[in-house]
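In response to reviewer comment 3 from the previous cycle, which asked for concrete evidence that the modeling workflow produces usable outputs, we include below a single protein chain processed end to end. The sequence was submitted unchanged, and the resulting C-alpha cells are shown without manual editing.
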Amino acid sequence: MTLQPSSSPVAPTLPSADILVQAAPLPEANAPLAASRSPTALALRRGLHHGGFMIGAVILGGIVLAALAAPLIAPHDPYAQDVSRRLIPPIWNAKGTWDHVLGTDKLGRDYLSRLIYGSQISLLIGIAAACISGLIGTVLGICAGYFGGKVDAVVSYIVTTRLAMPVVLVALAMASLVGGSLKVVVLVLGFLLWDRFAVVTRAATRQIRDQDFIAAARASGFSNARILFQEILPNIFNALIVVATLEMAHAILLEAALSFLGLGVQPPLPSWGLMIAEGKPYMFFQPWVITIPGVALLVLVLAINLLGDGLRDVTAPEGRR
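The workflow returned the following C-alpha cells.
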C-alpha cells in the first residue's frame, strides 16, 4: 500500500501569549518600579518605616520649630523679673496658675518662656560646635586616609595627642582663663570635638581610595583636591552625618555642664544648664526647678541620638538593594 503525502503542510508552532508577555515587558509598567529602586526613594521608604528615626525626627523637629517661633509662642518675656511672683509652682501643682504653666524661677521669670528660648542656645551651640569640629576633623581625616605615609603619621599623632587631653578638664581650663560666654563655649567645644570626625573620615577614606572609580579619576588627570572633595567626600557623607549628630548631642551636654559650673553661658541668657544651676538651692523644696530643664535636656539629646542612629541605618550602603 502506497502512502500519499499530505496535501496540508504542518503549521509552525507559535509561542504562547504568556511567553510573549513575559519576554517583552512593557516599559511603562516597570517605570515606577525602577524609580522606586533609586537610592533616594529607598532611603525615604526605609526612614518612614524606622521607628527610632521617626521618633527622633518628630521630637527634634518640634524643638527646632519652637526655637524658631520663640517670639511668637513664648507667653512672657524670658528676661522680665517679678520678685513678687517668684517660685510659683507648675500648673499640675495645687498652687499653680495658668498664667505661668511651668511656674517661675527665683527671680519671678516665666519658666516656659525661658525653656523655649533656652532651646535656641542649646541648638545654636550644638550645631555651631559640630560644624567647626566637623570641618577640622574631616579635612585632617580625609587627607590622612588618602595620602597615607607621613601625612597619615602626622595626623595620627595629632589625634593621639588630642585623645590624651580630657575634654571636660580642658574646656573648664579654657573657660576659666578666657571667661565664660556663648562665643567662648562654641569655640572651645568646636576645637575640642573634632577627633571622632578625623578617625571616622580616615577609616572611610582608606576603604575607598583604591576603588576603580578613584583610579579612573586619577587616570583622567583629576587633581588631588578634586578627587578628595568630588569623589571621596560624597561617598563618606552618610558617615559624617551620623558623627555630626553624636557630636552635636555631646556639645549640648558639655555646654550644660559648663553652664552648671558657672563657666559656660552667663546670666541672664536662658541656658538649660544655667537654669539647673540656678535651681540647685531649691531642689529639695521645689524640685521642678531642676526637673523641668533636666527633662528638656534629656529629651533633646535623646532625640538627636535617635535621629543619628536612624540615619546610620537608613543611609547605610549595605542596606541598599
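Confidence is low (pLDDT under 50) at residues 1-36. We consider this sufficient to address the reviewer's concern, and the full set will be provided in the supplementary archive.
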